[in-house]
Amino acid sequence: MNFSIVSIFPEMINNFIALGLVSKAVEKKLINIKVYDLRDFTTDKHRKVDDKPFGGGAGMVMKPEPFFNAINYIKKKMRGRVILFSAYAELLTQKKVKELSNEDHLILICGRYEGVDQRVIDELVDEEISIGDYVLMGGEVAAEVVLESVSRMIYGVVGNPESVKTDSFFYDNQFGFPQYTQPRDYKGLKIPEVLLSGNHKNIAEWRKKNQKRRKI
Ligand SMILES: C[S@@+](CC[C@H](N)C(=O)[O-])C[C@H]1O[C@@H](n2cnc3c(N)ncnc32)[C@H](O)[C@@H]1O
Prior knowledge:
Number of strands: 9
Strand content: 15-25%
Radius of gyration: 21 Å
CATH superfamily of the largest domain: SPOUT methyltransferase, trefoil knot domain
Largest sheet: 5 strands, parallel
Strand order of the largest sheet: 2-1-6-5-7
Order of helices and strands: EHHEEEHEHEHEHHEEH
Bound molecules: S-adenosylmethionine
CATH class of the largest domain: Alpha Beta
Shape: elongated
Helix content: 25-40%
CATH architecture of the largest domain: 3-Layer(aba) Sandwich
Structural class: alpha/beta
């Protein structure tokens, strides 16, 4: 699976992908990540990516030209689904993550400032995604969230594929359960007896009964 990420802070993404299972997945060639500096697609000597909003208002808006240049350049190499991160958009869920993991190529666009010129959204973006009802400084963290959650769905990225299947949200109404490890008795804090029973049916029932889920 291929990811192309467009940002004015490529170092943020490059630092992130240098660590953990994502970096291992790249090494194993299970995923391929290309990070593009939006400023490389400007045509003026100041490499300007933003300007004042028409109609007035606070802050700056990201200019259309660099995005048109960048996305067309990337698409010429390989077609892909273009996702822009926007605070107000549809929230990312595990269902969406699974859906995205079936794509060959995700082109992830990170906004900054007050956001991106609407013409980019109208002409180039297939979908806008939010990672939560709050406002970040930029889309880079959201791109990292998509990168991790989608990579996790790709067979081989997580060492034991079974662990993915028991994760929260993998199936409808499946949530995490309390986990314990050694020691059995930590300064008087004991673990539930059933987990020592070796009875897999009882353990599965106990875990199901004790699933954790926030009140919704
Ligand atoms: C400061 S925010 C812009 C907020 C925008 N003026 C608004 O009212 O929605 C700058 C950029 O950060 C990204 N961003 C901020 N919050 C986000 C969220 N919750 N999910 C995904 N991306 C987000 C978007 O790419 C956005 O264009």
